[in-house]
Amino acid sequence: MTISVRLPPRVEQKLAQYCVSQKLTKSEAVKQALERLFENNEAAPSPYELGADIFARHERIAPSVDIARHSKRLLRERFKGKHR
Q1: Predicted confidence (pLDDT) at residue 84 exceeds the cutoff of 60
Q2: 63 has pLDDT over 80
Q3: How far is the C-alpha of 81 from the C-alpha of 66, rounded, in Å?
Q4: Per-residue pLDDT reduced to its tens digit, 70-81
Q5: Rounded CA gap, 51 and 53, in Å?
Q6: What is the CA 57 to chain-centroid distance, rounded?
Q7: Among 4, 8, 32, which Cα is nearest to 18's?
Q8: What is the DSSP letter of 70?
Q9: Which domain holds residue 44?
């Protein structure tokens, strides 16, 4: 597939310098850059994975417990050391 991209002069100059130093064509350099971009995006952890250690602290509360409705009681038990 062929696509056209307009590059600012500064970026075009850097691309040309990179291609000369690495002995690549501009097309090959752009293909490699896009592959790296996609690989890095796939490897990024999800928001849940980033906060899993924080979320795990609350796994002791059963899902059937309505935390909002019983927040005062749950906090009292927590501070008194009677957490589940």
Answers
A1: no
A2: no
A3: 20
A4: 888 888 888 887
A5: 6
A6: 22
A7: 32
A8: T
A9: 9-80
45/80 Cα distance (integer angstroms)? 36
In a domain, 35, yes or no: yes
The reply to whether 33 falls in a domain is yes
Count: domains in the chain: 1
Tokens at residue 26, please? 């501009």
Give the pLDDT of residue 49: 81
Structure tokens at 75: 């906090």
3 belongs to a structural domain: no
Q: Are 61 and 74 in contact (CB under 8 A)?
A: yes
The dihedral through the CA atoms of 52, 82, 64, 72 has a sign that is negative
d(CA 7, CA 5): 6
Q: DSSP of 31-68, one letter per residue?
A: HHHHHHHHHHHHHSPPHHHHHHHHHGGGTTS-TTS-TT
The mean pLDDT value for 33-59 works out to: 78
**In-domain check, residue 1:** no
